[in-house]
Specification:
The protein is mainly β. Helices cover 5% and strands 45% of the residues. The strands form five sheets. Strands 20-19-23-16-17-22-21 form a seven-stranded antiparallel beta sheet, with no helix packed on it. Strands 3-6-7-14-9-12 form a six-stranded antiparallel beta sheet, with no helix packed on it. The longest helix is centred in the N-terminal third of the chain and has 9 residues. It is globular.
Length: 336
């Protein structure tokens, strides 16, 4: 590389692909896709997931959703390979008889895509598909009127930006294409990949998905795992574990609340769901076990979740307890 410095034009570099890659790689947040390398899987922890045909889209590895028509398919985070680049994980769909289509996409919120409006971007991905299928279709959209509002699978509220196809083989290969983002696309962008009849015995693999500003596909932007995890926790967070400390407030002798803060502030007020069983709290001198009752989850704050449980007796108020359970799974969902 040759760098020229003078008092008139500042620093100039040769306009080669190598230079372009060097310059782009030192900028922050190059890849607007989150978890493009499929390494974060808070929902399934690498286990297989079934997608129900003609149902609403279902989220899978973090930030990615999938759907299918015709018949159910399964999807799973899988090990990567050393080609075309060394990759730890990818995502793979496995087909079934009568499947007519499969989709896999991500919605990018306005705050992470606003500056792309009116520019040329490059979409790239590692793709492979069983030999009897050869085409993967990509489509880019933007939210039509309201920021971060893309509608449902059945009733989308999106405007198409562009679409195209990649001719794919059974060998994982990196593909790329340029997309001209219109000036109106300031409300959030959606990237969707689709295939046709992924029937029994066929698989579709995808990984290292990247959307970046500019007309050149550069090397994949590997962010630190902890950073990628926090970026994903803005949209989805499961409270899992066998125990935690909490400030417990007993409102009566048989009711208690405990609060758990989120690791990062969520995108919006999340939808709370969860299951807690065999709940025990202890102040290290006495343990109290719930004998029955019910749970409720307060999701009105982006800062944490309050869990209410009845069925305790003689529970002291305003005390710091250790909360344990055979099953603590409370999920906060603020996906787009």
């Amino acid at each position: 590389m040759t760098i020229v410095l003078d008092g008139t034009t500042g620093i100039t570099t040769p306009t080669t692909s190598t230079t372009g890659e060097f310059v782009t790689s030192v900028t922050g947040f190059k890849n607007r896709i989150l978890n493009g390398s499929m390494v974060i899987d808070q929902r399934n922890a690498g286990a297989s997931q079934t997608f129900t045909a003609a149902a609403a889209l279902a989220y899978t590895v973090d930030r990615w959703y999938g759907y299918c028509t015709g018949a159910n398919v399964t999807g799973q985070q899988v090990a990567g390979s050393t080609t075309p680049t060394v990759t730890q994980n990818r995502y793979r769909f496995t087909g079934a008889a009568s499947v007519t289509a499969v989709g896999f996409g991500q919605r990018i919120e306005q705050k992470n895509s606003y500056d792309l409006a009116g520019s040329t971007c490059t979409l790239s991905a590692d793709l492979a598909i069983s030999a009897t299928l050869t085409t993967v279709t990509w489509t880019a959209y933007y939210a039509t009127t309201t920021a971060d509002t893309f509608g449902s699978l059945a009733s989308p509220t999106v405007t198409s930006i562009a679409t195209g196809t990649f001719t794919v083989t059974s060998t994982v290969t990196n593909f790329s294409t340029n997309i001209s983002i219109p000036a109106a696309a300031t409300t959030g962008i959606q990237i969707l990949f689709t295939v046709g009849a992924l029937t029994a015995g066929l698989t579709w693999t995808i990984g290292n998905v990247q959307l970046e500003k500019g007309s050149t596909a550069t090397s994949f932007d590997y962010r630190p795992y902890g950073t990628e995890l926090q970026l994903c926790q803005r949209y989805y967070y499961p409270v899992r574990g066998s125990g935690q400390f909490a400030d417990v407030v007993g409102t009566t002798t048989d009711n208690m609340f405990f609060g758990t803060p989120f690791p990062v502030e969520m995108r919006a007020t999340p939808t709370m769901t969860g299951v807690l069983t065999a709940l025990v709290v202890s102040n290290f001198s006495t343990s109290y076990t719930a004998s029955g009752g019910s749970y409720s989850f307060n999701g009105t704050s982006t800062q944490g979740v309050n869990v209410r449980k009845s069925g305790f007796t003689a529970l002291s108020t305003l005390y710091r307890y250790f909360v344990s359970s055979t099953s603590i799974v409370v999920t906060a969902d603020a996906e787009l």
